[in-house]
Design a protein that fits this description.
single chain; mainly alpha; Arc Repressor Mutant, subunit A; globular
């Protein structure tokens, strides 16, 4: 059963705000998992190198796996399960992206309230951040994304990755060093501008 078809995601890829009554306990649980963790999964996939044009489908794949295996997911371990699944889906998507033509990306919506120059500046900064993230080895990128961008604690990162806290801290230190080094090499400041 596809998550979108099951009503767990709206057509735009966001969790539904309200929908029909859910029949079973597993359905209720997966609906809760989607609502609580969709944003995390979406951002993680993008930051792990999934092209924006494939992110919605990749996020849906993660939740399809969760739907099929919901009975195997321990209570309180949902985020960890989704994280591991997202890593595998991101790896598959990056591999597939090398073999397919990616169409030019257009924004889904236009924000008429903000200044076009601000929008352009923000888009450039996101592009620079994505380039810097993709320049990092996956183990360093993952820790960097979880700590710096997802604002998880070092202990939470270590638990999610299944590594000792010292290992997570060491990877974070190396990721930060690499991040600063790549910024410096590209002649950029921390704001992503020359």
């Amino acid at each position: 059963m596809r998550v979108l078809e099951a009503g767990l995601l709206d057509g735009d890829g966001s969790p539904p705000s309200a929908g029909p009554r859910v029949a079973t306990r597993d359905d209720q649980r997966i609906t809760g998992i989607v609502r609580e963790h969709y944003g995390f999964v979406w951002r993680l996939l993008l930051r792990l190198g999934v092209p924006a044009s494939a992110a919605q489908d990749a996020a849906q794949q993660v939740f399809v796996v969760a739907t099929r295996r919901v009975a195997e997911i321990n209570l309180g371990s949902e985020k960890s399960f989704l994280f591991g699944t997202a890593l595998r889906v991101a790896s598959d998507e990056r591999r597939l992206a090398k073999h397919r033509e990616v169409p030019a990306e257009l924004p889904d919506t236009v924000d008429l309230r903000s200044d076009p120059e601000q929008q352009l500046h923000a888009r450039r900064q996101r592009g620079v951040l994505q380039e810097l993230l993709l320049a990092m080895p996956l183990d360093l990128r993952t820790v960097f994304v979880l700590f710096e961008l997802e604002q998880m604690t070092k202990t939470e990162v270590a638990e999610l990755l299944g590594v000792p806290v010292g290992t997570a801290v060491s990877r974070l230190r190396r990721a930060r060093e690499l991040f600063r080094e790549v910024l410096k090499r590209r002649g950029l400041s921390r704001s992503g501008e020359p």
